[in-house]
Amino acid sequence: MSGRDVVLARVRRALADVPRGEGPEDWPVERDYRRVHGSRTTAQTVELLAENLADYRAIVHRCAADGLPALIRRLLAERGAETVVVPPGLDPAWLAATDAALVPDRAAQTARELDAVDSVVTGCAVAIAETGTLVLDGGPDQGRRRITLVPDHHLCVVRVPGQVVGSVPQALPRLAPDRPLTWISGPSATSDIELDRVEGVHGPRTLEVILLAE
């Protein structure tokens, strides 16, 4: 008996008492699980997000709205970024002070062209404190998925506290399942069997997050 036969036999046994024609949608799924762990104030939730972002080796900055253009200019200059990809709906004021050349996000761009760009600046859809995760959904201030996967440096702006939630169950209602969701927990990284960590394998080597006070 092959492995396939063994698996199928187990599936048949598991389904033996299920009436023919009954589908998964015929039974409601209980969703009374815990939606968030513990009790936190809004400020504590933001602090947890910052802590977990840093734990994933993202570089976290805090800023008020009037200081954002200058901060972005400084961070790009420190990276030596001469070109920056810009999503079509990003607030122009955010990059008004930068000296870098702005590269519009265009559908015709190839991966090779994006690889030649130094940085990308985006907003986000939601940030999850418990997991230190940023979620992008391809919105106007985030652009296409590829612009946040190919350039080596991603600078993401999170509006706090409005875009911050405590847990994944709290984030899901804010997201449309038919959108191209990208879940980011720190810079792109992987480890081999010897646990040697390599960053920048399938995404940006450096992730910087600006927590923008609303």
From TrEMBL:
Superkingdom assignment: Bacteria
Domain LUD positions: 47-212
Matching Pfam families: LUD_dom
InterPro entries linked to this entry: FTHF_cligase-like_sf (IPR024185), LUD_dom (IPR003741), NagB/RpiA_transferase-like (IPR037171)
Listed name of the protein: Lactate utilization protein C
